[in-house]
Amino acid sequence: MIWNDDFETLPREAIEALQFKRLKQTLERVYATVPFYQKSFKDADITPADIRSLADLPKLPFSCKQDMRDNYPYGLFAVPLDQIVRIHASSGTTGKPTVVGYTKRDIDTWSELMARSFAAAGATSQDVIHNAYGYGLFTGGLGAHYGAERLGASVIPMSGGNTQKQMLIMKDFGSSVITCTPSYSLYLAEALSEAGIKHEDLKLRIGILGAEPWSEEMRAEIETNLGIKAIDIYGLSEILGPGVGIECIEAQNGLHIWEDHFIPEIIDPVSGEVLPYGEKGELVITTITKEGIPMIRYRTRDITRILPEPCICGRTHVRLERLSGRTDDMLIIRGVNVFPSQIESVLCNIDGVEPHYQLIVDRDGNLDTLEVQVEVNEKVFSDEIKVMQRLNNEIRKQIKDLLGITCKIRLVEPKTITRSEGKAKRVIDRRKG
Amino acid sequence: MIVEQISIFIENKSGRLAEVTQALGDNGINIRALSLADTSDFGILRLIVDKTDLAKNVLKDHGFTVNKTPVVAVAVPDHPAGLAGILRILDAGNVNVEYMYAFVERCGGSAVIIFRFDDHEEAIKVLLNNNVQVLEGERVYNM
Fold first, then answer.
1. Do B42 and A411 touch (CB under 8 A)?
2. Which residue of A lies nearest to B7 if distances are taken between CA atoms?
3. Which of A10, A106, A373, B81 is the most exposed, having the fewest neighbouring CB atoms within 10 Å of its CB?
4. From 3.40.50.2300, 3.30.300.30, 1.20.1530.20, 3.40.190.10, which CATH number describes the A332-429 domain?
5. Is A89 helix (H, G, I), strand (E, B) or coil?
């Protein structure tokens, strides 16, 4: 079902006219209120007046995650704090999160776009939406929640974890739509099967899954094991949160990005040159309605291509091909962003441990696993097992405290981790291929 | 009164124990007693050898993580409840045993047990006060 027929099926020319109008307004606003953009535009020798058509967009400088860190916490906000009604944050590499603020209208826009996304995924006001995204600083939980309410569905604010309770509620409350990460949906399928609950006993029919990369193979498995349609959703907190783009249930082929609120571009991640539609590169997004923290040409580091062909669902907004990876070394493990440098900082903070480590990412059954291999040197080595186990537990606890994920620590002999000249090979990701 | 033990960190993978013992053998080092504590991922091999410092260097050269730890060699009467009697003495003296293992060779009419205490000095004091025989390092290395 199309939630907002007026906007979702706008002819191409109308979308572009609207984009240009909204882009100009956004540029003038950030140029007047955000010192970061004043400086970056001046450095690029450009003013909002120089943008005379959408084709001029590439003249504007990029923004990136580092800019958010440099302006931590509120430096990129385009409105005074009294107009901000909500603050979210995502995990950062150095422990400092990146912070985003929403005005009342931003929350309204977000709810609208999430409602559109739910509708595109096939959900209706009749559905019981089981929202298993985490509630909190992470945008997933509340983003999906507000959208589900806007849609008029009955939302169960489950949040993550406690699989036994998730299953009980899913069965007894008649959950028909689940929102969670793809790996959690598979884990849930396993747990259900172990508990002897068949998917025929549940009302579940749709899964809206995101926050980590997943494959077509995984989709097939999820759809079979849970007896649902599995829909890919895209979002990132810097731009909005969930609901930036979504697959339609009709095609399940590429994610419509809401072009009346965002302008997507694909660039060559090395040269920064804009690539034509259809070519693979880094996704860059400009927000054109956001008030709290507008982002101009934000480099998402996500690799995809833009598919401009008309879609069978009738929506005119272009689609993004399934995200195929990140441009940097960030790992997404069970939906949590993990940077090797974060693990390194934990290890370096433990007395005697040297930063000779390697991360082994794998999938056990259907859940992402992280193993941290740490070399044992004389300083941390003891002849007593309990002392070694204490070290093991300490590392695991500190990683859990920082990242919120449980990992396995494997203590290894010195020099077992391959040394390399130049950039160390810190990560072995066995989920790929 | 102190005996020096070397401990070696060993990952649970095939051939590692053989590598340790071979390296020691190649350098004419004789193992006097040993104990292996293990978990699912790694083990800790504890050895009493005749040439402690040489053994440590040889193993370090082979890339192992090696530490030296003071332990105590106790002559335990070789009859029923012989060990129980000594453990009772230690318990009464509030000395904690971290782990212990037996020596292959005997010393006179007694068995020899290697003890790792949390406080070896206090342990030796308690043992001697109770007329338990504690063996000198030199004697143990060359038994």
1. yes
2. A383
3. B81
4. 3.30.300.30
5. strand
pLDDT of residue A339: 73
Whether A353 has its CB under 8 Å from any CB of chain B: the answer is no
**pTM, 2 dp:** 0.63
- Residues contacting A257, CB < 8 A, separation 6+: A234, A244, A245, A264, A285, A317, A318, A319, A320
Chain B contact for A391 (CB, 8 A cutoff): no
Query: CB neighbours of A39 closer than 8 A, spacing ≥ 6?
Result: none
Q: What is the ipTM of this complex?
A: 0.89
| Sequence ranges of the domains in chain B | 3-69, 70-141
CATH number of A5-328: 3.40.50.12780
Q: For B103-124, how does the pLDDT look when each residue is reduced to its tens digit (9 = 90+)?
A: 878 888 899 999 999 999 999 9
B9/A413 touch (CB, cutoff 8 Å), yes or no: yes
**Domain B3-69 fold:** VC0802-like (3.30.2130)
pLDDT tens per residue, range A184-239: 888 888 889 889 999 999 999 999 998 876 777 778 889 998 999 999 999 999 99
